[in-house]
Amino acid sequence: MRVMITPAKWRGISCKLECGCKKLGSVHMLKRLLLLILFVALGTTGIHAIERPQPDDAGATYGGLPIRARLDGMQRVWQDFNRCSAAALTMQLSYWRPDVNYWRTIDGLNPNADDVSVRLDEMTSYAEQFGLKGIERTGGTLEIIKRLVANGFPVLIENVYYDGSNVMLDWMSHNKVVMGYDDELGVIYTFDSLLGFGADNLGRPVPYEELDDIWRPLNRGYFVLYEPEDEPLLRQVMGEQWDIDYNIQWTYEMVLQDLEQPDTDSFDLFNLGTALVGLGRYEEAAEAYDRARAIGLPMRMFWYQFGTFEAYLQVGRYQDVMDLARNVLRNEDGIEEIYYYIARAYVAQGQPDYAIANLEVALWRNPNFSAARELMDELQGA
Fold first, then answer.
1. Please, are residues 196 and 127 in contact by the beta-carbon 8 Å criterion?
2. Do both 75 and 191 map to the same domain?
3. Would 73 be classed as within a structural domain?
4. How many CB atoms lie within 10 A of CB 290?
5. CA 73, CA 75: separation in Å to the nearest integer?
6. How many domains does the chain have?
7. Which of 10, 16, 129, 153 is the most buried (most CB within 10 A)?
8. Which of 208, 242, 276 is the last residue of a domain?
């Protein structure tokens, strides 16, 4: 598949506000850091403006969002095979660092050609090389996406994609960047390295009603980059979701609501397991994962999500870790995380030599895998 990278012309935000029946003209961001977003009305009947909330404004609220917003200045990147994470991160990074290079991002995230997945914490580590910080959360909503975009933060979301008649075989994770929305049209706008960038490269529209269908199976995960000096503003925009403990509990309660729906499925049970792992309720998590697996999951689910291994390890189900790991590796042997969990199972059973052997494979596949490196150092007495 071809790769096209278009240099960013400038980093900015362009939004429009409709107030009653009066349509306001487009405006530009005057300054990014802690300044005002002004919406200037064209005409002679007066000026309408929205103030960008300041970090020290304790009374700031976010209910009055503009009905449409779009972030400009990002690169458009067509992905190479199995490299949507690097493509999405490159596009998101380019909003802040216009000269970021897609191929270097691949080298940073996928140092081994056989690597088939990227965790969000890997993206954070890579972004830190550019002086940026990252935050990942689950249980995302349309409202939080809109608040982030309206305040100048493009959002990378983990969603699913498949193109074929067999969902279990064709299903895969896919990352895209939300860079706009329009309440009047009922769509978010995305830069999608596989499906494109929409008419005139202004963003590919995804209807609001379709968003959750592609987002829910991966626990509605989202990822935000920001300048360190923007952290106070981002904390205000995210509200209670900034707190990781609150977010985990929020996600858990959201999944419980999903499970009450008539069309609940194995993804909901899997998400329940992941939320329970976050809460430290490993016995319940393992049971939820068991139920999800009994109903059926796409074969690639364990390429991207590793909570099942963690739950089984925590409750002493080491053989189940081994069996699940071998099943995954039969289909795809390029997932470094699988070798890491095998190593931990061997450690728990008092077999450090086997653990070290598997950690060597994990680190050969990804030398940047910090958890594997830390366990290796511990076992070797470093």
1. no
2. yes
3. yes
4. 17
5. 7
6. 2
7. 153
8. 242
